[in-house]
Task: inverse folding
């Protein structure tokens, strides 16, 4: 059972384009697992309705921040805003603020 579908903003697509193919495949695989399982190790709430897709691959912690768009009751979306490779255990406030700004822009434009 799929709990949600994921779509990517341009910034998230641009980030994925910077990664090598095997890393992208691992990130997309983990996103698909999260869509079917709601596993907190793969998809976790941060703050202010911002969530993170989490992937650990080849010693790198890859994160895609996201938010929910549940306006369509039949097709709940999770919108990935942007991504980055983490070097620390905590997501910076600057990254969360960027995700919030992209979320606000998304809802203003739709």
Result:
């Amino acid at each position: 059972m799929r709990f949600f579908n994921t779509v990517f903003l341009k910034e998230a697509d641009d980030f994925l384009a910077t990664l090598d193919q095997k890393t992208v495949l691992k990130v997309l695989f983990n996103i698909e697992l999260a869509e079917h399982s709601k596993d907190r190790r793969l998809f976790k709430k941060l703050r202010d309705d911002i969530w993170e897709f989490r992937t650990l691959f080849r010693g790198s912690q890859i994160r895609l921040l996201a938010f929910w768009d549940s306006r369509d009751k039949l097709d709940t979306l999770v919108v990935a805003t942007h991504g980055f490779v983490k070097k620390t255990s905590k997501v910076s406030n600057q990254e969360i603020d960027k995700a919030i700004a992209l979320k606000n822009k998304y809802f203003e434009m739709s």
The mean pLDDT is 94.
